[in-house]
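Sharing a chain and its predicted structure for anyone who wants a worked example. Both blocks are below, sequence first, tokens second.
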Amino acid sequence: MMAIDSFARDHLPDEADLPDFVFTLPSLRYPSRLNCVTRFLDDRVANGHGAALCLIGATERLSYAETLSRVNRIANILVGQFGITPGQRVLLRAPNSPMLAACMLAVIKAGAIAVPTMPMLRARELVYPMEKAEIALAICDIRLCDEMESARTMVSVPALYFGTDEFAALLATASDQFNTVDTAIDDVCLIGFTSGTTGQPKGAMHFHRDLLAACDAYSANVLRPTAKDRFIGSPPLGFTFGLGGMLLFALHAGASTVLLERAGPDDLLTAIPQYQATICISAPTAYRAMLGKLIGSDFSSLRKCVSAGETLPKATFEAWAVATGLRLLDGIGSTEMFHIFIASPEEGARAGATGQVVPGYEARILDSDGHEVSDGAPGRLAVRGPTGCKYLSDPRQATYVQHGWNLTGDTYIRDADGYFTFQARSDDMIVSAGYNIAGPEVEAALLLHEAVAECAVIGWPDAERGMVVKAFVVLRPGYGENTLELQDFVKATIAPYKYPRAIAYRSELPKTATGKLQRFLLRKS
């Protein structure tokens, strides 16, 4: 009988601390035993889709059959060369590429647990997930070996480097046949560490069914890709937004995906027409950066653009629609929920609103006592559905999950039509002289000024008003500091009491590896 490492199951939250899981859609009712890679790859090939294009990189293109062959070979290396057993954790570190995607799928197919990390992490940042998840093996792009080797001096973990002659030889001699490890649908297959926007990262554990549910809920009902689509975008596969949007949604639809190692706004401007991409996955910051450079670019192949990772300003939504004819598909998800749970398809998208609840999920707006508020009143966003928070041995589980609901830490308003509009992160709501001021609303106003490239707004202690609005601003080249002008501009754009009473200028803002603002660092400045 095959040995099974029970670490992940032993470190799941207690039953009483788990969220309620609901499976309202027939497509979300999976068999009790299923390895999700079977659905993503094996079934596709078995059903005659093997010749279709699957993974596209800078130097190679793999069909579904070729991808399955590579995944099987890597799985054989993991089991035969490194003795990986079901339930063990395997850390992955590399920029987006077909090889990284194949390695991640191979880990899961072998019954192990993938622990993807951001390629920009330094050695000391790698040590935390290596220790927390008790990593059995690290798979790393050889070009990123320096930080990995430094981390291994602090945590003793075997490493497998791809991009080497040794790895190529292993791959060439490994069998391309591998019997997918039989797993329960609620076995852990992924641990995604949060990006540290509010401090110490948390390890969010996900079942095989979670990866499938994101596809059968959001992708199938909101994004609605087809086998003819070609995905492209910026989020890393080490980020759950990227793993779903850049890989799993494409596989679930039988589509292809372009995995770019460098995917900044300028890179996307070149790559979209080059690869004739039809679906773009990115963040508002990237779309905003591309807006001024669209002249001369051929975006005619694009038919859908997904925006998530941070709030989408109304101005960006409207400007993108004018420039491209496409409505940005806004959405909110979280590492804890795996992917997007509030969003609307393009025909229902509204400027300034995140959207409606994704089919398969439920959402409420709660007051501080946990009671549901009336439409139009701000409160805490609470969500439940087929996915939910399952932290790896973390007392913060009790904060995120309350009375069966996942509390995302966001303040929202729901209107009578069921549209949810973001107000602020709950800890970013600024109370100044009795007024509730949403920091992102002030940020959105500042971003309308031609001089502002980036900005972040926080509450700043003040003896007279309790807190005041403070803005940290990065100026565009050629513009000088002019606090009074920016303050007057905000007063003219939104309610005057919301204007930033203090403005500090920076050359850059602190961000995580996924590009999210780290406001907690600004509060310490």
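Comments welcome. The radius of gyration is 23 Å.
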